[in-house]
């Protein structure tokens, strides 16, 4: 072949021209050795590859060797969007992840500005004709380097064609990213009712689509690969940190869960399966974390009830335990609580209590049968308070005035952890009746 220009050759009587480029070493490692022809399927979704400018000497001059480089492979149907992407700008906004309970800060490449909080386009066209976005956590180290250098270099590969672009990274970009990172710490459960987050989680599980996710028209990059090797020193430091970690000493940590509900199922839970819609039994609904729920689904756990003497205040309490391994849920109910006196009588007469365990993440239910001793009938004569007076008092009590903080309850949990040599993760709840749940379910956090 006859070289006629840089990387351009001519061959044969017909003058067929060839463009010859060396495959960068960082990409060559991904291909089988001693194979000269490789047929690779076109990507069906956008992917990002972290590479270094020094690995691409044929594409980037030595003066850019220290600049961060994103190699982005796009599906063939986006080939008409390359020209607009190359003329776009870099920005950020806050949006939901595929988990409705968490949010993340996203970096986008698009023409026109996005609203920092909503992810909606500000320009009149509403949806950008071409837009890419990816979670900022994937590229945070690059962004800090790019801020020092002034820009990030992006190489687009689409339908076998490479397009080189550069995007300025300014103080405004870093400010928006800082705002986004701060706002993601505000957990969505503090802003919307849990039932709404659970409904969205079920929709994603059933359909694969989040019905509440903002549609900004952007293609989200989910596949991220990194070809940059870690240094031996970094690996050694990581190993040293791991060696220093040790198991937690036996004990327990408690966190407040949603209040347990006592009553007919459709009156104390937001989502009722179709097979239980007509059920009129008096249930105990307990909200448990996702880990405990999955363990109980595998029938790896048990539930029981104990009668304990309270230490910090007069009286006794029924404590319902639901446990699997180190995961545990507790519900504490006073024996003299007038709201549940008839319920105690019914459960004792039946010899059992119907438990509805609600998965905190998606609101799905798991039903269990809890054995209820015949003599656990409560003690309504021990107090003169009516159910209405109890509801009023509890609604006005201080946040720290909770039954699970009683020394008698804590002592039982700690003793259980020490005897078994475990660190227990406890979800703590107190019970409310149908009237109280009707009010709480209307509240937005």
Largest sheet: 9 strands, mixed
Helical content, roughly?
25-40%
Poorly predicted sequence stretches spanning 5 or more consecutive residues: 113-129, 230-245
Structural class from helices and strands?
alpha/beta
Number of strands: 21
Tally the helices.
Answer: 12
Strand content: 25-35%
Query: Quick check: average pLDDT?
Result: 79
Distance between the termini: 72 Å
Q: Report the principal-axis shape.
A: elongated
Using the CA coordinates, give the radius of gyration: 30 Å
Describe this structure in words.
This protein has 445 residues and is α/β, with parallel strands linked by helices. Helices cover 25% and strands 30% of the residues. The chain has helices at 25-28, 82-86, 140-149, 171-183, 194-207, 232-244, 265-268, 290-297, 341-350, 387-396, 407-420, 434-440; strands at 2-5, 8-11, 16-19, 47-52, 68-73, 89-96, 103-110, 131-135, 151-158, 161-168, 219-220, 223-226, 251-256, 260-264, 282-288, 302-309, 316-324, 327-334, 352-359, 365-371, 423-432. The strands form 4 sheets. Strands 13, 14, 15, 16, 17, 18, 19, 20 and 21 form a 9-stranded mixed beta sheet that branches. Strands 10-9-5-4-12 form a 5-stranded mixed beta sheet. Residues 113-129 and 230-245 have low confidence and may be disordered.
């Amino acid at each position: 072949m006859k070289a006629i220009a840089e990387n351009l050759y001519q061959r044969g009587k017909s003058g067929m021209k060839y463009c010859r480029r060396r495959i960068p070493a960082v990409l060559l490692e991904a291909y089988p050795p001693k194979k000269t022809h490789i047929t690779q399927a076109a990507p069906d979704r956008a992917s990002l590859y972290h590479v270094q400018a020094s690995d691409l000497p044929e594409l980037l001059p030595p003066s850019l060797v220290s600049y961060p480089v994103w190699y982005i492979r796009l599906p063939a149907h986006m080939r008409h969007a390359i020209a607009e992407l190359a003329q776009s700008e870099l920005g950020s906004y806050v949006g939901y992840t595929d988990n409705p309970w968490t949010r993340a800060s996203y970096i986008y490449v698009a023409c026109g500005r996005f609203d920092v909080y909503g992810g909606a386009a500000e320009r009149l066209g509403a949806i950008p004709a071409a837009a890419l976005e990816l979670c900022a956590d994937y590229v945070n180290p690059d962004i800090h380097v790019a801020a020092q250098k002034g820009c990030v270099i992006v190489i687009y590969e689409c339908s076998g064609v490479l397009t080189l672009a550069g995007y300025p990274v300014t103080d405004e970009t870093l400010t928006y990213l800082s705002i986004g990172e701060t706002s993601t710490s505000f957990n969505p459960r503090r802003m919307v009712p849990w039932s709404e987050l659970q409904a969205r989680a079920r929709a994603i599980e059933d359909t694969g689509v989040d019905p509440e996710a903002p549609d900004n028209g952007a293609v989200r990059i989910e596949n991220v690969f990194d070809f940059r090797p870690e240094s031996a020193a970094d690996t050694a430091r990581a190993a040293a940190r791991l060696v220093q970690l040790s198991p937690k000493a036996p004990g327990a940590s408690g966190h407040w869960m949603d209040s347990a509900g006592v009553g007919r199922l459709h009156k104390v839970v937001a989502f009722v399966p179709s097979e239980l819609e007509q059920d009129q039994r008096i249930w105990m609904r307990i909200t448990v974390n996702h880990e405990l729920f999955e363990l109980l689904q595998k029938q790896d756990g048990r539930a029981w009830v104990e009668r304990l003497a309270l230490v910090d205040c007069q009286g006794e309490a029924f404590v319902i335990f639901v446990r699997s391994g180190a995961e545990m849920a507790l519900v504490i109910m006073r024996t003299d609580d007038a709201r549940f006196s008839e319920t105690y009588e019914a459960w004792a007469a039946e010899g059992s209590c119907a438990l509805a365990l609600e998965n905190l993440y998606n609101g799905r239910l798991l039903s269990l049968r809890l054995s209820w001793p015949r003599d656990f009938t409560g003690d309504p004569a021990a107090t003169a308070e009516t159910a209405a007076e109890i509801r009023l008092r509890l609604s006005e009590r201080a946040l720290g005035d909770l039954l699970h903080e009683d020394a008698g309850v804590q002592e039982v949990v700690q003793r259980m952890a020490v005897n078994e040599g475990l660190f227990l993760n406890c979800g703590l709840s107190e019970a409310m009746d149908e009237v109280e749940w009707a009010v709480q379910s209307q509240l937005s956090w």
